[in-house]
Amino acid sequence: MYKYIFITVFATLLSVVQAQEFLTLEQCRSKAINHNQDLKSAQADLAINIATLKMSKRAMLPQFDLSATYTYMNDPQVMDVPSWELPTVDGAPSGVKFTGLYKELTFNNMYDGGIDFSLPLYLGGKLRNYIKMSSIGVDISEKNVDNTRENLILEIDQKYWNLVSLKENLLVIQKSVKLLEDVVQETSNMYHAGILTKNEVLKTQVELNNTKLAMIQMKDNIQLAKMALNQSMGNGILDEIAIADSVIIPDQKPVSVDEIETIASNRKELKIMEGQVGISTADINIARSDYMPQLVSFANYGFQNPTHKAEDKTEFTWVAGLSFSMPVFHWGEKNLALEKKKLVNQKARLNYDKAKEGIILQIQQSAFNLNESLVKISFTKASLNQAEENLKLEMNRLTQGIVTTTNVLDAQVQWQKANSDFISAKVNYKINKSNYLKTIGQLEI
After folding, report:
1. Is the distance from CB of 425 to CB of 372 less than 8 angstroms?
2. What is the tally of helices (H) and strands (E) in the chain?
3. Which domain of life is it from (predicted)?
């Protein structure tokens, strides 16, 4: 019977463990990248801009088009010239009459068709600047994909390490519960022995209950953190997952940012804004080209019926030529259009300069935060060691009847807080490191 119960319990525990998905940070990043809709949208924008660039380049190539037209006229037009007497030099009657003329100018059935050719020869540099704008658009889209991916990785890192922090804090609370249960048992024994009062026992029991409540709340927070991580990875929101990592900090040295101007200039966000400046510059040239000479060549070879002599038969013919146009006077429209484009370009440059200053500060701040995290790890670790020693001392004194439960409970609270601070310091270091790598453009999967 007991053997059957043991096998059943073991099988149940094994199924629960197998149902859980143990994930490392890299696996979480990879799943989120494959799922994220914003990243897929950025990749779609890149594909669109690549297609736009190809179309811009092909606009400079010869264009060929086929065309055909058929027309039926129920009542064709005619030329009806009445008869009249031919005049003489002196105006006297000539006695000779013109008999008149009646001829159909069109036919009931008319059709034509042919192949058209056109090639722009000179459009003031418009096509060249369109290609330049499209090329910059592709580059901006590529940087946007990279930037979206980096932002997603940073978001996953924050959620992942937050879950790790909650998990380790739960372990601390569970140790606190075990510790307080021992304290409650010890104080109860001392109360029955007449050493402590009932009030001392009740105080420890209240603290135990509060800690158990905190444990329940921590478990709820862990479930919420798992849901948030599942949502980002594309899992079912209630899927059971387990984090494979714990917060272990290897030996690290403080970082220093060299060539911060170069690092800031290479940030994806600034590259995007730099591209926007380039697009607005090309837009100025396009606006200028609208008021320059336009030269286009064209040709057509085809057939028509009736012929140019209004004969009811098919005639093959061809035409070729050049089309030239140039704006002369538009009441200052050119200057106004150029001024508008230049103001847009100036605004883009100002936004770039402002963003660069902000990114330089951001890089420096992220380095400060990372170095500060290292210092906090050292301080909180020392505080934790002191809290552990203090708790041991107070527990021994309680056993010896030297101190009251208040001292022990205070020591326990300090020990739990020191553990929580140490975990927070380590997690903040992990998050600050990801943020630092993001600010210097080195956060990769």
Report:
1. no
2. 9, 10
3. Bacteria
Asked if 241 and 229 count as a contact pair (C-beta separation under 8 A), the reply is yes
User: Who contacts 301 (Cβ-Cβ below 8 Å, separation ≥6)?
Assistant: 114, 115, 316, 317, 318
Amino acid at 207: E
Q: Using only C-alpha atoms, what is the Rg of the chain?
A: 42
Which pTM value belongs to this model? 0.82
Chain-centroid distance, C-alpha 285: 30
Domains, the chain, in order of start with CATH, read: 21-77+115-439 (1.20.1600.10)
Dihedral, 265, 276, 38, 46 alpha carbons, nearest 10: -100
Q: The tokens of 155 are what?
A: 């978001």
Please choose, from the candidates 433, 443, 369, 431, the residue with its C-alpha nearest in 3D space to the C-alpha of residue 162: 431
Contact assessment for residue 128 and residue 281, using Cβ atoms and an 8 Å cutoff = no
Longest dimension (CA), the chain: 161
3-state SS, residue 150: helix
Distance CA 74, CA 77 (A): 10
Tokens describing residue 237: 């929101």
**Average model confidence (pLDDT) across the chain:** 87
